[in-house]
Amino acid sequence: MSTYKIAVIGDKDSILGFKTLGIDTFPVADAGEGLAVLRRLSGQSYGVIFVTEELAEELKDPLEELNRRFLPAVVLIPNSRGALGIGMQNIKQKVEKAIGADILFRKEG
Amino acid sequence: MEIRVNPTRMELNRLKTRLTMARRGHKLLKDKRDELIRQFVILVRENKELREQTEKALSGAFARFLLARAAMPIESLENALMYPTRRLSLKVTRENIMSVYAPKFEWEETAVTEEGGIYPYGFVDTSAELDSSIETISRVMSQLMELAEVEKATQLLAVEIEKTRRRVNALEYVLIPQMEETIRYITMKLEENERGALVRLMKIKDVVRASR
Lengths: 109, 212
Hints:
The complex is a heterodimer of chains A (about 110) and B (about 210).
Chain A: E1 3-10, H1 12-15, E2 24-27, H2 31-43, E3 46-52, H3 53-58, H4 60-67, E4 73-77, H5 86-99
Parallel strand pairs in A: 1-2, 1-3, 3-4
Chain B: H1 9-71, H2 74-80, E1 86-97, E2 100-111, H3 128-211
Antiparallel strand pairs in B: 1-2
Helix pairs in contact in B: 1-3
């Protein structure tokens, strides 16, 4: 069993704090850069990639493709400007896709 | 719509076996779908809760980090965070949920420094917000890994459920009705032939009797 690495991609201000934990940080300025980094990382032995929601919104399609693969697991995290609710939205979409109706958020909406 | 076939007994037999096979497959796939959905619902509930917690914790940590950044010159902040104090090693095993393979993460962090603290800097020229931000992030890490695991599993399950449901529907609404229709067509055709043969025999008998 091989060991894997963990990466975090996002704007610099948000992800700098992860560096001290031994996670590889990849600060990017815009979506194009983010896509390049993501492409590069998905080919390497990264088990988990954390992506800020802000960036993830611009990279929907490549992320969707990664979601169908066994590894890496892409997890959206809020950035320094707070949570955008995209991660939650994704859960909701998953539920609708799998079951055909929204059973988790129905009470709130 | 029926399948175009020769209305023969052999074809009829073959179709009947295919139909029972399709019915059995349909039932099995339906069971699989139901169980997948059950598992999915359990996991997705967990997923939602975990995400709520981690998002809240992380947003707080990032907000404090921003404050720290405002309070300190950017160079000294970057210097302070230059060296990681931990080394993370991640091991991945496979977990089988209804023959959907989801990754299971096992991670280990080892301290790089001798004292084993989580702060890579001295406390002299850094602000307190930075400390609490780093502390929260390191605390949230295990939750984040759990979130990664659960979220991946639900994603993979969702894809599998969709696939299974398509198959179930294809069998239920297309293949099985089609075969039933065709079987009916063949039986009718065969009966018609039989009747035709009978009538012909009777006619021949009449002709033979009259000519005698």
